[in-house]
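Quick illustration, no need to memorize.
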Amino acid sequence: MLTVSRSIALPESELVERFLRADGPGGQHVNRTESAVELRFDVRSSPSLPEEVRERLLARSDRRLTADGVLVIQARRFRDQGRNRDDARERLVEIVRGALVAPKKRIATKPSRAAKERRLAGKQQRSKTKQNRSRNWSAE
């Protein structure tokens, strides 16, 4: 079980791990061992997630989320497979925890009268500056 919060825990059966060879430096070690981890979690069909959390996760514009609603996390930061596995799981937990909190609804506000006047005064000042630049200098 992967514990996300007091009310949400993801069972191991919903997590699909694949081990692959990591790219980058590491010499012969990196060519012989499969230390990188690809963790897949099907957000769309997971019975462990509450509906509102699922909707928030699917609504995110995250490149790690496939069109089928599968979240794919790749961990290859470490040379050790176990540490990469833990890293991928921690990142999954952080992503799901981020979707637990509903975003605050934005309250529309109007600019104050003084702010409107400052904006218009700035526009008038820029207009005068540009007018001064365009004087006919050839008459002199």
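Helices lie at 28-32, 51-59, 81-100, 113-133.
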